[in-house]
Amino acid sequence: MNATIFRRxxxxxLAAVAVAASTAGSxxxxxxxxxxxxxxxxxMTARDLAGVLRYIPVAGFTEIGPSAPxxxxxxxxxxxxxxxxDAVIKLRxxxxxxxxxxxxxVVTGVRVGSVGPKDKPSTDLRVPFTMVWTSDKGSWQLRHxxxxx
Length: 149
Hints:
Elements (H helix, E strand, L loop, with lengths): L1 H44 L3 H5 L7 E4 L7 E3 L1 H8 L4 E14 L2 E13 L8 E12 L2 E9 L2
Parallel strand pairs: 1-6
Antiparallel strand pairs: 1-2, 3-4, 4-5, 5-6
């Protein structure tokens, strides 16, 4: 009987350790995708093309927002052109939340700041967003962003 109780207790402990490990892994992955979403805007503000491209697939990602008449694809070349322009880029992400579904994450938050001509004063616009990210070989890639008004 004592051996049975010991085995049962050992199984309970092992199950608790396994649950804790899987929860910690999920929490770490949530932090990683949260960091990626926040860092994307940091890299854009810094005009760091390599930093931005680490999050963007070669084929680009889709975007929809109030200023676009329809869904369009933003490819890496669009960021290169933006960074080579005189535009003032000042963006950051706030209130970021993550929902994970395996290797896919839905990230919501608020984009604060603006992108605009250097000769006009910038205003900190607050634009809610929803992003869809996928993880491939441990790196998060942006697949879609929806900007709201």
